[in-house]
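Treating backbone geometry as a discrete language has practical consequences that deserve illustration. No coordinates are needed to read the tokens, only the vocabulary itself. For completeness, the protein is quoted in full, as a sequence line and a line of structure tokens:
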Amino acid sequence: MNDSHPTWPDPVEIRLQSGLNRTFREAFDALYFLEEEWPTRHGAAYDRARRWCRLAIETDQAAEVARKAFIAAARQAGMLAGEPPGSADPAPNRSVA
């Protein structure tokens, strides 16, 4: 396991169910949130984000892919800050591996 927890060059901000925003700067925090606090724990984007965040913790090379996967999961769940609630794309972006 990589102990350095590299930060993402651009943080990801999501909107919590309470209406507050939360900022994520690394895959480690994003993975914890996905596994312990995510409101809807299903879907391809959610599964992909968990897989890539886990991989990013083990290797620095996956950090940016993990960030993009986390954004896709947040968008699908309607939680991406800066986007109106309910604007989740019904067809998930398939460009994230």
